[in-house]
C-alpha cells in the first residue's frame, strides 16, 4: 500500500531539537516503532535504548556532531530523527542519519520536514556527506531520500532477515554536500 504524501501541517506537528527531558518519551517511542514495522535493523526488544541511554546521548558530551530532532503532536512524541558524526578523523566529514515515524502519522510530511531540517543543520557544520541505510522494501523512505538528492551507493545483498523468513537487501544511500 502506498502512502499518500501530504504537506507538513505545522499547526498539528511541532518539530524541535530533543532535550534531556525527552529521554523517557524517546525510549518509549523507539520501542513502539520497532514493534510497528520491520523497516528498522532490530527485532522488537533487541538493542533497546532505555531512558538512561537517551539521557546520556542527549547530554551532548560527545565530541562528534550529534543531533536528535523530535516531532510532537498534542504533547506526545510521534517521530524522531538522529544525525550522528564519526569520531575517527578519516570519517569526520560525514554523518549517519536515521528516522522513525509512528505508523499512524506516515504520509503527513513528517519525514520530509525532519530531513529538510537535518540537511539545513548539516550545511552549517563541517559535515560534507550524510549516509544512511534503508531496507529495499521501504519504498516511501527511498523516494523521500531521492527527492532530497540522496543517491544509491550500494547494496548489501540478502542482508536482513525479516519475520517472513526471507532475506532482503539493505540499500546504502548518500548525499554529498561538497
TrEMBL record:
Entry keyword Coiled coil: no
Domain N-acetyltransferase residue range list: 13-178
Key words of the record: Acyltransferase, Transferase
Domain of life (superkingdom): Bacteria
UniProt-listed Pfam families: Acetyltransf_1
Protein name, entry field: N-acetyltransferase domain-containing protein
Amino acid at each position: 500500500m502506498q502512502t499518500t504524501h501530504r504537506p507538513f501541517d505545522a499547526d498539528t506537528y511541532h518539530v524541535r531539537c530533543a532535550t534531556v527531558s525527552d529521554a523517557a518519551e524517546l525510549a518509549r517511542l523507539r520501542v513502539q516503532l520497532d514493534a510497528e514495522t520491520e523497516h528498522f535493523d532490530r527485532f522488537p526488544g533487541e538493542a533497546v535504548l532505555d531512558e538512561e541511554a537517551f539521557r546520556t546521548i542527549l547530554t551532548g558530551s560527545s565530541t562528534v556532531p550529534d543531533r536528535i530532532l523530535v516531532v510532537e503532536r498534542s504533547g506526545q512524541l510521534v517521530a524522531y530523527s538522529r544525525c550522528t558524526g564519526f569520531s575517527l578523523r578519516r570519517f569526520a566529514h560525514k554523518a549517519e542519519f536515521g528516522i522513525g515515524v509512528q505508523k499512524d502519522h506516515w504520509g503527513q510530511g513528517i519525514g520530509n520536514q525532519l530531513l529538510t531540517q537535518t540537511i539545513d543543520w548539516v550545511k552549517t557544520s563541517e559535515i560534507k556527506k550524510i549516509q544512511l541505510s534503508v531496507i529495499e522494501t521501504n519504498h516511501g523512505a527511498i523516494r523521500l531520500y531521492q527527492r532530497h538528492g540522496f543517491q544509491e551507493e550500494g547494496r548489501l545483498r540478502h542482508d536482513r532477515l525479516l519475520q517472513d523468513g526471507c532475506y532482503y537487501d539493505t540499500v546504502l544511500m548518500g548525499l554529498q554536500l561538497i
